What we know:
With 322 residues, this protein is of the alpha+beta class. The chain has two domains: 8-176, Ribosomal Protein S5, domain 2, CATH 3.30.230; 189-319, Alpha-Beta Plaits. It is 45% helix and 18% strand. The strands form two sheets. Strands 1, 2, 3, 4 and 5 form a five-stranded antiparallel sheet that branches. Strands 7-8-6-9 form a four-stranded antiparallel sheet. A hairpin with a 2-residue loop joins strand 4 and strand 5 (173-176). The radius of gyration is 20 Å and the shape is globular. It starts with 7 loop residues before the first strand and ends with a strand. The mean pLDDT is 90.
Amino acid sequence: MSHKSEVFYAKIMLFGEYSVICDSMGLAIPYVHFKGELSFIGKDRYTDLEFAKSSNSQLKDYLEYLKNLNSGKELHPEIDIEAFEYDLENGLYFESTIPQGFGIGSSGALCAAIYDRYGKNKIPTDRNINKKDIVKLRSLFSTMESYFHGVSSGIDPLNCYLRFPVLIKGKNELDTVGIPRNKHNKDGAIFLINTGSPGKTGPLVNLFFEKCKQYSFYKAIKEDMIPYNDQCIKSLIKGETHEFFKNLKSLSKFLLKNLRPMIPDAFVDIWKQGLESRAYYLKLCGSGGGGFLLGFTEDLELARKELKKHNVDLITVYENSK
């Protein structure tokens, strides 16, 4: 195949990490600061050659996974395996600036790029895409991305593919959505904190599943975490700032208490400081364990000042004033 490769951006799961597994709402947005695209070794690219060779080798392993799915009729819509294999033999790799293991969709962008290039009877990206097609895409992407994490909701690659904020209302109810800037405090912002080391999604997702086997933990997820999570999404979309931060604070406290293994040790006090000072509130970005943490604030400059006390710089994702 010789058509031009599309660029796919990173994503940020604002709400729904872990809880979507238990049928909560979820909200994911594209993050254009990082991106990736399929390319070929030797086509005037400026990536490290060893990186390109390694990516090509990893994609060949992934091809075998897709072959098994294809032979078992598990890929719907189908992927053109033969074309993918041909291109891999000719040096195909994934040119990407998206850091792996940081919770912002490196494998999601890859799956989206492969489907875009090799999907048969491809569902096109469109702001007005119908809900039936969104559900179909999510199912396909869940299957494709499970190779990387063991279990995947399919939301990351779906968001990377559509390039619009995606609202998950339930297991089979998804839609594209907008986030109103002018209804929230103009000094407010969403930001990232780099923990300095990648996390490992598979083991942490497995830990979450194990913990869910405990009645008390699962009950807390269903009765506390999910209501906080869902109310955060609803109030954010409606522009109800006070209600949003009230539920966000409760959600941040819940994560600190109940999902402590997912929070890097060096950032526990920083997390607590945000809750105590109310200058910012932190939550997981992806599965946690490293990578990025996600932060929200009503006053960006105050949050920046407080985090500086811990020698931590924030990376702005979304500012209400812009």
